[in-house]
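Ticket #4471: structure output looks truncated?

Reporter: J.K.
Steps to reproduce: submitted the chain below (155 residues) through the standard prediction queue, then opened the result file.
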Amino acid sequence: MRNYAEVFTDGSCHTQHCTGAWASLIFIDGQRFTLSGVEKNTAHNRMEILSVINAIEYIKQHYPIITDISIVSDSQYVIGLVERERKFITQQYKTKAGKEIRNIDLVKHLLKLNTDLSLQFIKIKAHQKQSSEPNYNIEADKLCRKLVREAISTC
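Returned output as attached by the reporter:
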């Protein structure tokens, strides 16, 4: 077994119902794992971060030998978190107005995971048209939106 995994993530949220969903497609040595979940009282960016965190936690728990993980996401927010880590620390995770940054709990968790493992974040354009090549980001997006639709249909 190689010590590498590739993860495709996405998150979605119905802003009026504050109901969201996240999905992660994990590829390890030709095996595929699909993780997903639904959350109430949430926002889009929380779902994007949760998709990444839950995938990494799954890999850590089930494949502790894996140390290198590529995270493919269409979320500029998530991709930019690691790049802004030093700024967050310098500003004590506060905005210019002195308030805690949004999603501070998840941001800190993700940044901690980044120190434990070698994570590579890859930005992919959102909502690409399906082509002959597999695009797992599209699949994660469709799964998230389906889960949100199902969750709000019961409201």
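Triage note (M.O.): checked the attachment and the full token line is present. The two ends are 45 Å apart (CA to CA).
Status: closed, working as intended.
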